[in-house]
Design a protein that fits this description.
Layout (H helix, E strand, L loop, with lengths): L1 H14 L6 E2 L10 E9 L1 H9 L2 E2 L2 E2 L1 E2 L5 H8 L9 E6 L6 E4 L8 E4 L2 E2 L20 E14 L5 E7 L13 H20 L1
Parallel strand pairs: 6-11
Antiparallel strand pairs: 1-2, 2-11, 3-4, 5-11, 6-7, 6-10, 7-8, 8-9
Bound molecules: methyl 2-acetamido-2-deoxy-alpha-D-glucopyranoside and calcium ion (CA).
The site of methyl 2-acetamido-2-deoxy-alpha-D-glucopyranoside (2F8) has 7 residues, from β10.
């Protein structure tokens, strides 16, 4: 019992300062997806890996993809005074000038090509993306308000993870019944042998 209480206290402390995912509800004109601002210092790669390793209600996390003006506003509104900038899931690291969403239901969708819109939603600040220093291949929000900027992925920022019912985490594969039976049998035999000694 004591251990249970201690576990609950540790879980509570670990979760402190970390907001739970919030839903952009369909009733409010949203897409039903969930979003979570994860504060801290992460390179873009670290943020991407952490987002991909996050699961919420069976949905697989991915770095947020702002695919409409309303969604971009919803994501921007998650930011606050202590965490004013965050990574999003856009990059042109694979092909300079070709900006795509790297993961989630919109994975591979290009939103900018050599500075031109592709037809998909984009929200660059004036004169962005400028690939300043020839080294800005990752997308963040908050640097110019709700407008986007490209920036080196080695810098440290918070990130926004998104969860969609259209992008589920792989289901755990159940063990075949035979393997479970064999495991139980071996366990029972080991117990009996230990009692005999
Ligand atoms: O003026 C916009 C420009 O500002 C900075 O470069 C001087 C940003 N880079 C960093 O902060 C590292 C650019 O991304 C931005 O385009
Ligand atoms: Ca830039």
């Amino acid at each position: 019992m004591k251990r249970l209480v201690m576990g609950a206290v540790f879980a509570l402390i670990a979760g402190m300062g970390q907001a739970a995912p919030v839903q952009w509800t369909e009733a409010s004109g949203g897409n039903g997806h969930y979003y979570e601002l994860v504060s801290g210092d992460f390179t873009w790669d670290e943020a991407n890996t952490a987002a991909q390793g996050s699961v919420f209600n069976g949905m697989q996390g991915y770095l947020a993809t702002a695919t409409s003006a309303l969604e971009n506003t919803f994501i921007f509104n998650l930011l606050n005074v202590t965490t004013p900038i965050a990574w999003l899931g856009g990059s042109d690291a694979d092909s300079e000038g070709l900006w795509t969403w790297v993961d989630g239901p919109d994975k591979g969708t290009a939103f900018t090509f050599l500075g031109f819109p592709t037809g998909a939603f984009q929200n660059w600040a004036p004169n962005e993306p400028n690939d300043a220093g020839g080294n800005e291949d990752y997308l963040h929000i908050g640097f110019f308000g709700d407008q986007w900027n490209d920036i080196p992925g080695t810098l440290d920022y918070a990130y926004v993870v998104e969860y969609s019912a259209d992008f589920l985490a792989p289901a755990a594969v159940p063990l075949p019944a035979g393997v479970v039976l064999l495991g139980s049998g071996l366990g029972i035999m080991a117990l009996r042998r230990r009692r005999r000694v």
